[in-house]
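Entry for the shared binder. Reason: the reviewer on the internal report wants the predicted structure included alongside the sequence.
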Amino acid sequence: MAVAAVLAACSQGGGAAKEPERSSPSTASARPSGPSAQERARERVESHRQQVSALATGAATPDGEGLSVARRGTQSTTFFWSTANRLYCASAYSSTHQSLGLRCLASVKPVSRTPELSRIDEVDFGPQGGYTLLVAADRETIRAVTCGDTAVAFREVRVTGDPGAQRTVYALELEGWTAGALKVRVSRADGVHTSTLPLAWTDDEVPPDSDWYSCGAS
């Protein structure tokens, strides 16, 4: 009886059993629920830029190029800029701790006549803003940076000067106050070279019980 019932059901309609209707995907479920992570990050950086711009007044007022991003943290942004008097400034802003400080150098070394790396400033904005080393590369381009055997993240921040005497400002992300020297691979007009960039302190100058990092001697 069961077999007969199945055959009867299949024979009705003169063909194969009709496939169940497939529901189309919901239009609402296909739409994103909100801004993407990248969009939220961009919005956060622009919000921090507006806050720092409001703080950078008087002698610290940025020149026509405005603020350049030197470092992006999870909840903070570090900015670099140049003033009308060609002084270099840096500041960081945190979504949770607001302003993390602002500092400007009293003087800036002119662009070297030969390829050269030099430290501009070392800014420590604490756990929220991080430790950033600002470096000037005159008449050359940084390709890689290492501290001992560890690669150092870096960002091109701004290019200044004339085409024949350009300076590129880079921001290097270090773990904290660091002694020793960095190894830097650079490109120049005559090819690729490896340079040594001494930091502000040597290993011998750092107390043995400090929490400083070390890149080793040059």
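Summary line for the report: The chain has a mean pLDDT of 84.
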